[in-house]
Amino acid sequence: MTDTEERLLARVALTWLTEPGTWSVHRLVDQLGPVAALDLLLDGGAPDATLRSAVAARSAAGAARQVAEQALRRTERLGARMVTPEDEEWPAQVADLRALRLSATGRRVDLETAPPLCFWVRGASPLGEALARSVAVVGARAATPYGTHVATELGYGLADRDWTVVSGGAFGIDSAAHRGALTAGGLTVAVLACGLDRPYPMGNAALFDRIAEAGLLVSEWMPGAEPLRPRFLIRNRVIAAATAGTVLVEAAARSGATQTLNRAIGVGRPGMVVPGPVTSAMSVGAHEALREHPRARLVTGTAHVLEEVGRIGYDLAPPARAPEQPRDRLDDEAVQVLEALPRRKAIGVEQIAARAGVDLRTAMRKLSMLEELAMVVRRDDGYALAPPPERAAAGDRAPTGGSPSPLVTPPC
Amino acid sequence: MTDTEERLLARVALTWLTEPGTWSVHRLVDQLGPVAALDLLLDGGAPDATLRSAVAARSAAGAARQVAEQALRRTERLGARMVTPEDEEWPAQVADLRALRLSATGRRVDLETAPPLCFWVRGASPLGEALARSVAVVGARAATPYGTHVATELGYGLADRDWTVVSGGAFGIDSAAHRGALTAGGLTVAVLACGLDRPYPMGNAALFDRIAEAGLLVSEWMPGAEPLRPRFLIRNRVIAAATAGTVLVEAAARSGATQTLNRAIGVGRPGMVVPGPVTSAMSVGAHEALREHPRARLVTGTAHVLEEVGRIGYDLAPPARAPEQPRDRLDDEAVQVLEALPRRKAIGVEQIAARAGVDLRTAMRKLSMLEELAMVVRRDDGYALAPPPERAAAGDRAPTGGSPSPLVTPPC
């Protein structure tokens, strides 16, 4: 067994011995590395009594390294893979969860919120790349037709502009967001709170298969792990930290659905909320969030979401995929028009105007300006984004060979 | 003719010579009094050319004092009356319009926004008293069934808690708010942008008659004045300044309906906005206002509105009508329960819980506490507010003989 394999095995064993997100475990791994941290815990050397008894209880059920070996074999049979901080595809931004030890309101967060030790992943895209330019769309399971409609539109609109749509795979808003992204032919990531072989809810099994084909299924729990209630809250922190921002669509009063939003704000991501009719019980939680969180932002559609995450998204994205634009020189309407253009094809001016939410004359004026700046090109069938080399050349900051953004720490 | 009659006549003549809200006229009246100000203007001594030519144009159409005399006779025939700053019933808070020379965003406001010179009033209640504890509910004429429903509920809920509902008498949201207040048997005030004998819109003539019977019709324009377009914007400043806060229910994109909201914020009143479905064109302006005004506050119903205007309302209200409560010692839920009680009758615990938006057990717990504090009394048919004398005795600050609130300047 190579050193790398041993470290992987230790991470899996640690995941089984203790729930993901446990701060004391995270600190041990940070200080000693996963192998020595595992040895210490198995020797009864856990730094606190709760952890010590949790490890003892688990160890009584089997030998940790043996369980981990079985889990890895099961992972392979599933067609899934492990991703750890040692891998290229690790989404480094989840380290921002360290900020979450205090909540957005300054109160101590008691739930387990340490960064993940490892992920199980099903799907072809590299995990880090898929999440580099991603937005979370979350909300109530008991969604109304209104909420389902809005979440589907958001999923579609974001995917159509090449943003990955991340959600939790639940019924209602989550499913609608995933489906919208799939319909647009975009990437979508479902972050589950159980093993990848135990799709929960079962009624979404077919949806999970489509997501695994076109996007990614992700979990911090090993195959076979059950969707226990507290795991959903632990899982939510990953959705909040892995994405450039979280949009809440529908939530009942004092609902758990607002927790992901709070976590997102807590790690410095934009927390966005879609309002609804004040007569709808499923919008009460959304309105509460807007009233109570000074940093929660009201959004009504894809354009508003892009406004919030736009810059952060570009920062998170690897330079090769998102060359910097001379956007700072553009006025708001020009940016809206630019963002209305799909990544790969040309569309007509009327469609651009509708997407950008500007009138036809404004769209035409801004498009001519953008054409002069070599940021868009005119074609027979409308306007398209200028191909990357020219766009890079027009940029203020050359993207090639630049140092990675400060948010993207090199894999360790 | 007495001095008082002369001053009144001068104010009416000034209103006819120049549009209400003109700063240079307001300043002249402030410095010289209405009679000398009128003489100066009629002698061609207006301080600026625009005003000079406006006065000249009007004077060519008739002698100002004669027109004013006719207007006063017509006022009497209408069963209406004049209210000026010299009268007891003048709503002193409209003087806060002086703050409006700069807009909420710091830009110069070019529209006429000076405080009014006088009001025409139809209805029995004293104007100042009716407005002392009032909230404006305004919005789109082309309201949706959703907006109409919400405005009616707000009008009803506010009136039911003894707040006067102020609006502009237009179709849509305005009418719904007035009707809700009338249904609750409460006071409602329609501030018109034309003469009181020319109800606009005509389709609301019956509604205006009901308002004049149960509440007040108010205008800054003399009988016969037409509802010219700019007058609606001039009128809006009165709605904003005369009330303790303005609630916007539905507004189309970039709509004039948000102007009253901006004015309210500009004079330091709470600006409140009811959200709606993001799929509704009639909520686009409401959502814009919530996104663009850092001080606009999202509200979903009467309870939220009372939270915002509650304290200001008590400050504006004459002490005799609103004895101070030891509310500062109560927690939020107790305040909600207390505010859920109607002013004059007892209601059941279940109804109280529903109105307060708390569960039954909480309602019962808070009611016992309020009973111990002698703020509510238990009766056979439920709970009621304790009668005023006892409530005043329980208060921290005795209301009797207190000096008027700083917001209420003595009539001059």
TrEMBL record, chains A, B:
Gene Ontology process terms (BP): DNA-mediated transformation
Domain spans labelled Smf/DprA SLOG: 82-309
InterPro entries (UniProt xref): DprA, DrpA_SLOG, WH-like_DNA-bd_sf, WH_DNA-bd_sf
Chain positions covered by the region annotation Disordered: 384-412
Recorded superkingdom: Bacteria
Gene3D superfamilies xrefs: 3.40.50.450, Winged helix-like DNA-binding domain superfamily/Winged helix DNA-binding domain (1.10.10.10)
Pfam (any one): DNA_processg_A
PANTHER family xref list: PROTEIN SMF (PTHR43022:SF1)
Family: Belongs to the DprA/Smf family.
Name of the protein: DNA processing protein
Upper taxonomic lineage: Bacteria, Bacillati, Actinomycetota, Actinomycetes, Micromonosporales
